Amino acid sequence: MDKTTLLLCLAGALFTIGLAGVVIRRNALVMLMCMELMLNGVNLSLVTFAQERGDMAPAILVFLVFVVATAEVALAIPIVLLLVKHRRSLDLGDYDVLKG
Amino acid sequence: MTSGFPHLLAAIALLPLAGFLLNGTFATALGGHRFSHRTAALVACATPIAAFALTVMAFFQLQGQGFDPIVEPLYRWATVGDSSFDIAFYFDRLSAVMTLIVTGVGSVIHIYSTGYMHDDKSFGRFMAYLNLFLFFMLLLVLGRSMLVLFVGWEGVGLASYLLIGFWFDELANAQAGRKAFITNRIGDAGFLLGMFLLYRAFGTLDMDTINSAFISGSGAMVSASLVGLLLFVGATGKSAQIPLYVWLPDAMAGPTPVSALIHAATMVTAGVYLIARMAGIYVHAPEASHVIAVVGVLTAFFAATIALVQTDIKKVLAYSTVSQLGFMFLALGVGAYGVAIFHVVTHAFFKACLFLGAGSVIHALGGEQDIRKMGGLRTKIPFTFWTFVIATAAIAGIPGLAGFFSKDEILWYAFASEAGGATWLWAMAAMTALMTAFYMFRLLWLTFMGPSRMSHEVEHHVHESPFSMTGVLMVLAALSAFGGYIHIPHFLEPLLPLPGVQVAKEHFEQPLLIVSIVLAFTGLGLAVFFFGGPASRPEAVKQALLPLHRLLSGKYFVDELYERVIGRPLVWISERVLLRMGDQMLLDGSLNGLASLAQRSAGLLARVQNGSLHFYMMFVMIGLAGALLWSWRHG
């Protein structure tokens, strides 16, 4: 197994752990962190491909993902805070009335 | 065009439209009644009077160029393929006569209306509608193309509808307006079909072109009789002939000046104008002409019999109008087009005078229309009385007055014309003339003579109308007296030649003249005998002929017949077939079915949205796995 395959396996593992976390865990904050894991798994694969091909385009995409992820967290955390203030619970199962 | 006035004819037609727009905008509830009463009246009367002045100008211009028609193209309305439709005005001897009548009589009736409608809360709206009517009527008589004529034709129908139902807060009035409109639509269908046929044959709707094509013999592409009959169907609607006359008596629901202007003097003669205008076709259509003559004389006769027993002052006049229109169609049917127009003119004078006189009586009596509750009015409203006498004598055919000349010529041509004159036509027309004299003098006697039958309170309030009304009555009475000396058939002869006279009947002219004079005076004498004496005399006749009286006062039950034969089956089909099966089952059913299908399937799908993020996430995972699987299989 060379280095590239190893790094891609790691990226896949990160993504899978993140996905499993989002599906299984009920805590909103943990779910958010798991989403970050998924994003970073993708980032890792992008960087690996950039190294492999000597192409800078994927590396730039990584920075775009950073920006979007930051913005997303900046929105998501206040929402979670407000929810917690409202019901004193981080369990998303308590909030199914929000289905509209 | 030699005149300094480039769009003289357009100006004639558009002036009343301007009046309508001004009053319609500023003098009605729509515009918040910005105009005072006086301004509205001024605008409404000034525009027709100006139009009349311009018509006189146009007439002199026409005379100046030796009666060559003035053609005034305004603009191109539409171009379809190779053919184009122009808005153009056409002014020849015939349109000159009609335009003078429409603007002249129209103007005086506008002036009368300012007095008659003075206290109405919708005065501005009334005057605006009258102006609108005049605009469409002028379009009708001035248009060169049948298309322009048709726009006017429909427009006067609209104005008539609006004015019959002017007091629409009473259901009967609104229904009368609707009846007029719908009855006219039936005739219009015939008119349209005739127009289509003409257009297919000639590729144009310009009436002068069509006429000359028929006269030069190149009209063989289309059957003159068929076109003639179809156009006549249109005329029966607008001019209230059998079988479509039923709307006119009901149209009396409108204010009286409307009855005078639209339903006596101008609009109802549009059918006569149409047929005289298209005389080129009818000259080549003896069958169609014969149908017109027969329908005309039957209408004249039966309407006169109904008028004998009516008790509403306006209804008597309405049936008399139907009857007189029948006379005009009789003249058209025997080829005497100029004579028919002559009767249009004299009838416009005396019938407008009669209606306005009736309006003055109704005004004086505070709304009473039943002649059984009148009587003895001659000294109380003398101006109305004397003008009414002159107009009655004119319509009855008393020698020397307008109606005598035109009616006598109609009788003569009905008897002796080479183009279908027959003794039985004359006999029926003469009988009608006798009845006309009788019922008109009956009306005069019951209304003005004898003792008063008014209730005390009504009698107390009787007053002569203001000068704006009586002045108009005097003008019209003068015209009814002397209008017969303008010899219109002679004036129109270069355009509408009079038919020849059957040689065998030539020497009957003098005797027939004497007969018709005798008939007029017999009618007068009978009316005086029955209604000047004790009330038991007419009562005895009524008792002796009770079934006949019932038939006549029931108007031959034609309305009931139409209701049963046409109205009810139509309602049944509309209700059962069109409404229930078509609208409710087919259209509503399919739409409602689709809607409920969508609703039910949406109800099923909505269960998926249960608010649990993990549930949604599971779907995302399934989707992701599916996408991966698919790309692996097909990669």
Brief descriptors of the model:
heterodimer, A: 100 residues, mainly alpha, B: 635 residues, two-stranded antiparallel ribbon, 26 helices, 3% strand
Task: Please describe what this structure looks like.
The complex is a heterodimer of chains A (100) and B (635). With 100 residues, chain A is mainly alpha-helical. Chain A is built from three helices and no strands. Helix content of chain A is 79%, strand content 0%. The longest helix of chain A has 31 residues, at 57-87. The mean pLDDT of chain A is 89. Chain B is mainly alpha-helical. In chain B, strands 1-2 form a two-stranded antiparallel ribbon. The longest helix of chain B is centred in the C-terminal third of the chain and has 49 residues, at 558-606. Chain A binds chain B through residues 19, 22-23, 26, 31, 92-93, 95-100, and chain B through 609-614, 617-618, 621, 624.
Q: Which blocks of ≥5 consecutive residues of chain B have pLDDT under 50? A: none
Q: So what's the overall shape of chain A?
A: elongated
Percentage of residues in strands of chain A: under 5%
Strand content of chain B: under 5%
The portion of residues assigned to helices of chain A is over 70%
Number of alpha- plus pi-helical segments of chain B: 26
Summarize the structure.
The complex is a heterodimer of chains A (100) and B (635). Chain A is 79% helix and 0% strand.
Write the topology of this structure:
The complex is a heterodimer of chains A (100) and B (635).
Chain A: H1 3-24, H2 28-53, H3 57-87
Helix pairs in contact in A: 1-2, 2-3
Chain B: H1 8-26, H2 37-64, E1 70-80, E2 83-91, H3 93-116, H4 123-142, H5 146-164, H6 171-202, H7 207-215, H8 224-238, H9 247-250, H10 256-265, H11 270-277, H12 279-283, H13 286-307, H14 313-333, H15 337-364, H16 382-396, H17 402-416, H18 423-448, H19 456-461, H20 467-482, H21 488-492, H22 509-532, H23 536-544, H24 546-553, H25 558-606, H26 613-634
Antiparallel strand pairs in B: 1-2
